[in-house]
Amino acid sequence: MDYMDREGKRIKNTTGQDKFLNAVYSNVCGRFLMKMLALPVVSRSVGCFMDIWPSTFLISRFIRKNHIRMSEYEPKKYRSFNEFFTRRLKEGARPIDQEPSHLIAPCDGAVMAYPIDLRTKIYIKHSVYTVASMLQNYELAAEYVGGYCIVLRLSVDNYHRYCYVDTGVKGRNHSIPGILHTVNPAVLDHIKIYKENARSYCVIDTKNFGKIVQMEVGAMCVGRIRNYHRKAMIRRGQEKGRFEYGGSTIVLFIRRDYVAIDNDILRNSANGVETKVKLGERIGKALFS
């Protein structure tokens, strides 16, 4: 899948993930193999390997294959693939929009936005979900009817650390266990993704956007969603956590009449097209500021 940038230009996807996964999931044997790879014991084993020195031999090829610009990142000799995968950006590489009325992207990724209505379905490419099924909490989901569900999908070439979108008070973490599986949209014709992925969410009482929900969704070989804080006072742009190896997704739930999502994102989403964004840049604006 290609994307649109913020200027409305199409960006070619160079990672090759979609093509590979379409090939794998187009036959029964491929789907069975991926199902086996998604078992927790396999995911844990892969995760353990990615934490040790021999995994560093994967780094150079990964950089070349996914066209990663290492000039953006702090120079470092990595002791494992996961240390490389969770590498830090150089200071200033992702400036945080500090305008209080601007809703910022919590991560690098490809974004789509959907109006929330519990009587209808939320379509994430070719699969169908509801806010309640994602949260496993109907009462909480009902609070967001009329608002927006913002889905930010990270690919393997993205920066895999993420931040808080505003200053405020963070509630406790809620963990939902699941079978880990890929969140790449190429597989959505074959597997209902969010019902199978482990995920974690919290409610944040923000200064400028009311109470929002931020959810992190793990993918295949990403059993470890690393969130740093329990209940806490947090600030805009502060690092919230990181994903370890694999592609992953962040979902924001915004209440009604709090935020106007930027027009280019809404227009692209209505056409079924993702918009490329970077951590810290504006994706919407508070309706009352």
Strand and helix map with partners:
Blueprint: E1 3-4, E2 10-11, H1 17-25, H2 28-37, H3 40-50, H4 59-65, H5 81-85, E3 102-104, E4 109-115, E5 122-124, E6 127-129, H6 131-135, H7 138-142, E7 148-154, E8 161-163, E9 168-170, E10 174-176, E11 199-206, E12 211-217, E13 225-227, E14 232-234, E15 239-243, E16 248-254, E17 259-261, H8 263-270, E18 275-277, E19 282-286
Antiparallel strand pairs: 1-2, 3-19, 4-7, 4-18, 5-6, 7-16, 8-15, 9-11, 9-14, 10-11, 11-12, 12-16, 13-15, 17-19
Descriptive report:
- The chain is α+β, with helices and mostly antiparallel strands.
- The strands form five sheets. Strands 4, 7, 9, 10, 11, 12, 14, 16 and 18 form a nine-stranded antiparallel sheet that branches.
- The longest helix is centred in the N-terminal third of the chain and has 11 residues.
- The chain is globular and about 50 Å long.
- It starts with a strand and ends with a strand.
- The model has no long low-confidence stretch (mean pLDDT 84).
Short synopsis of the structure:
By secondary structure, the protein is an alpha+beta fold. It contains eight helices and 19 strands. β5 (122-124) and β6 form a beta hairpin.
Radius of gyration: 18 Å
Strand tally is 19
Helical fraction:
10-25%
- Content-based structural category: alpha+beta
Q: Sketch the major β-sheet.
A: 9 strands, antiparallel
Question: Any low-confidence stretches, pLDDT <50, length ≥5?
Answer: none
Q: Calculate the mean pLDDT score and round it.
A: 84
Distance between the termini: 36 Å
- Helix count equals 8
Broad shape: globular
Give the amount of beta strand, in percent: 25-35%
SSE pattern: EEHHHHHEEEEHHEEEEEEEEEEEHEE
